[in-house]
């Protein structure tokens, strides 16, 4: 996915999203590319930072599911900062300006963010399946402490796995581009493994688990007339409370299912292009389609906070509370403190 990698035919093209030189140098392409990337990245960076802040600073938001969402938000931030923002300078200058260390580090962070994002989605999918289909077991399995241990394991595994990229990329073309140092034939097995572990398997697992979740019957609506007549006994009230918990869990699950669906759809253009270019003799590298693929990838890392705000009342309230709190503090800092200093003088 890294934008900085060379798009020459003799290099692997599964991740290369660089545009052809003639189009990339045009003012129209540069303007649209920079505008789209900056817009998506700014929205995504602000949104994902807010997700992290509301979960960390709000006690009732510290749930196992939200722990995975924090991991996903940090991974998406890594993608936007390491892939999106350098793409702006690359579009403006047409050359790689970060040196060999930047080539290695930025490529590593790009893959780290992409792979952790996929693993985080898989983790909360499994957590949702256990919470809905095995609610009794979930009381001991789906805990915040266990979620933190799983997230730590995911990041450690992915950090080690992505170290492979330190040996696969290097500065090329007279320090103009950051590209692969191996031929396509040597890289193909690595790509296929990466494609299977971080895209195909998570989506297949999500299809199976969300299919099983969909089979769980929705809670029956309550009968107000019975409640008025006092015909609802203690056991029925207990069941009603349990149904409320199931209904809330299903609502959260629907939100996360949308996250998974968008992950599949927004990564599909790039993954399809990569799959085709890995086997054809002449890769398809249309500049505008490559820009479309890049924008979809960045949008995937930016859209999740929008989904949380649209589909979760808790996140909406937490976002408003975070904004109000910081807005109030800024007003106090700007207006009250200077007046106090004047009075003291």
Automatic annotation (TrEMBL):
InterPro entries: GPCR_Rhodpsn, GPCR_Rhodpsn_7TM, TRH_rcpt_1
Gene Ontology molecular function terms on file: thyrotropin-releasing hormone receptor activity
Bilayer-spanning residue ranges: 32-56, 68-88, 108-130, 150-168, 188-213, 246-268, 288-310
GO cellular component: membrane
Cellular location(s): Membrane
Keywords of this entry: G-protein coupled receptor, Membrane, Receptor, Transducer, Transmembrane, Transmembrane helix
Protein's recorded name: Thyrotropin-releasing hormone receptor
Record lineage: Eukaryota, Metazoa, Chordata, Craniata, Vertebrata
